[in-house]
Amino acid sequence: MKEAIMLRSLALGASALVIAPFAASAQEAVAPEAAADAAVKTETVAIMDASQVATKEEAKLYAASEFDQADLDQDGNIDKDEFIAYASVRAPVNDPALSVPDEVVESDDAAAETIVEGEGDSTAATTAEEQFAELSNGDEQISESELIDKRVAQFDEADDNKDEELDTEERMKFASLTALKSPGSAL
Description:
Low-confidence stretches: 14-18, 38-45, 98-123
Number of domains: 2
Strand content: under 5%
Distance between the termini: 86 Å
Number of helices: 8
């Protein structure tokens, strides 16, 4: 009886030794992929505010984060309804960092003109619907690469001194360029 128990224990131990290396190598093969995915998601989630973007890589991460949040059905594209819903939540309706105080406009007309010029031009999209049309390139959906390309172009536009890094003033310009508009209302 003791011999039978010892043989079973020995057989279990031997099989565990045979299986363990395979389990460990399978776990090691999956671990780097999972860690890389987690790292990308962590970096993407970390850049939720356009005014924090300082490099082109961060602009790409910001766009990827926007895309992940806006693509509600996770089909790899943002349709108009998804974009409008996202814009409704994210639009800086009362964001003081992106508005020009009334006293600045009243105090110095030349300074006010400079500030207003920096906010955008007459061709800029004024509603979320217009922004969607611009971002979707007319095909009624926004792919992740389209959004990333647009944010990189906006980064380049905000980078006044072309040093590939945004200073505080340039960050505010980038935030203004990427600001989502409220659906149906001109800002």
